[in-house]
């Protein structure tokens, strides 16, 4: 069985990657993609980019710089790197789903991520979303593994190592996209639900990992830009925009069309995943399980989704580019909804439901 699993996994990942590349190769470039390609080329030439990429998204700049170098300056370098990271996100997402809801939930989450239209369409462009998503989901998956109660491990050394790596990945997610700070809430919930001894042993390791990645970045930002560089690296500028918008919504003008546009695009492309996510979230209220919501498989993705919703509700505008950040928790909820639906429907009902969702997804 194990011998047959690896070829199947490689086949599924390859198919997911090909589908993403096939889509983005036929799409026009965005302004942000042009800026990130310029930043990568400037860094390769030993020049300091004129923009704020080294305080805004240095991890993405490094990834795209490597992609431009490896592809000999291809215009599609950043897209190929994003498509690869977006595809590989299926692995930690499946691992996280397995930790939260069991093997079937993990498999459903991984497959949904690979072949649902939303993650495939939005997160494969050469911008920050794919890298931030990969690092963030990987961090939560490792943290969930480190905090998992089991009888096999009698020593905390492997758990501390997982916590250390999780901290590094959290920092890389934040160094890819500031809104990855929303990951702190589901991470805090994982710690809250773990035994006290686990929290005492693993939290310092995770914090040390985060500092290992963040401190050198802050030193670089200070050497290049002074104290302004540190403030921007920590996201103080973005926090000021949110605070100004909350105090006076008219003071900070939206720089995009109505949020209804982004929501409409999101509904058309992620409708099936959204329906399954609602089914998954609703399942937490069935069967008298409301009291156990904090420790249920639904808690982490629900808190994650709510944190992002509150964050973007405070932001002056909403773009379709922001939607990929919602996909990982949505897919986890959808995987649980899929399993819940299969237990409620007959075999014929399951086939009809899956068929309708596939038609919507392909459309």
* Mean pLDDT score: 83
Largest sheet data: none
Uncertain segments: none
Shape: globular
Radius of gyration: 21 Å
Please give the count of helices: 18
Q: Tell me the total number of β-strands.
A: 0
Supply the helix-strand structural class.
mainly alpha
The helicity comes to: over 70%
The percentage of residues in β strands lies in under 5%
In short:
With 363 residues, the protein is mostly helical.
What report would you give on this structure?
It is a single chain. The chain has 363 residues and is mainly alpha-helical. Helices cover 73% and strands 0% of the residues. α1 packs antiparallel against α5 and α9 runs antiparallel to α10 (157-174). The longest helix has 30 residues, at 196-225. The model has no long low-confidence stretch (mean pLDDT 83).
Write the layout of secondary structure elements.
Blueprint: H1 2-24, H2 31-44, H3 53-56, H4 58-70, H5 77-88, H6 90-101, H7 103-115, H8 117-122, H9 129-146, H10 157-174, H11 184-192, H12 196-225, H13 227-233, H14 236-247, H15 259-282, H16 299-313, H17 327-344, H18 347-362
């Amino acid at each position: 069985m194990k011998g047959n699993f690896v070829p199947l996994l490689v086949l599924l990942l390859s198919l997911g990657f090909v589908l993403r590349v096939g889509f983005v190769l036929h799409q026009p470039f965005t302004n942000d993609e042009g800026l990130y390609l310029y930043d990568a080329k400037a860094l390769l030439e030993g020049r300091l980019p004129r923009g704020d990429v080294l305080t805004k998204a240095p991890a993405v700049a490094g990834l795209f710089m490597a992609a431009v170098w490896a592809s000999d300056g291809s215009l599609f370098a950043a897209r190929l790197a994003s498509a690869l990271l977006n595809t590989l996100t299926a692995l930690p997402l499946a691992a996280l789903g397995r930790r939260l809801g069991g093997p079937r939930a993990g498999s459903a989450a991984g497959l949904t991520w690979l072949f649902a239209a939303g993650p495939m369409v939005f997160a494969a462009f050469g911008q920050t979303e794919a890298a931030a998503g990969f690092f963030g989901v990987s961090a939560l998956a490792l943290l969930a593994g480190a905090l998992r109660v089991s009888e096999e491990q009698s020593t905390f050394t492997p758990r501390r190592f997982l916590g250390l790596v999780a901290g590094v990945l959290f920092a890389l997610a934040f160094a890819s996209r500031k809104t990855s700070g929303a990951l702190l809430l589901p991470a805090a919930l994982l710690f809250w639900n773990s035994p006290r001894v686990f929290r005492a042993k693993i939290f310092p390791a995770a914090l040390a990992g985060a500092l290992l990645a963040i401190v050198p970045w802050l030193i670089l930002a200070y050497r290049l830009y002074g104290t302004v560089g540190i403030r921007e690296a920590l996201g103080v500028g973005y926090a000021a925009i949110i605070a100004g918008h909350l105090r006076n919504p008219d003071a900070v003008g939206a720089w995009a069309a109505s949020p209804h546009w982004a929501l409409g695009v999101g509904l058309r492309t992620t409708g099936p995943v959204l329906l399954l996510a609602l089914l998954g979230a609703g399942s937490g209220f069935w069967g008298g399980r409301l009291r156990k919501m904090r420790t249920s498989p639904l808690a982490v993705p629900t808190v994650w989704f709510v944190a992002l919703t509150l964050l973007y509700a405070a932001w002056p505008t909403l773009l379709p580019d922001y939607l990929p950040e919602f996909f990982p928790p949505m897919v986890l909820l959808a995987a649980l909804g899929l399993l819940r639906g299969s237990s409620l429907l007959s075999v014929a009902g399951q086939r009809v439901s899956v068929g309708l969702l596939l038609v919507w997804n392909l459309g």
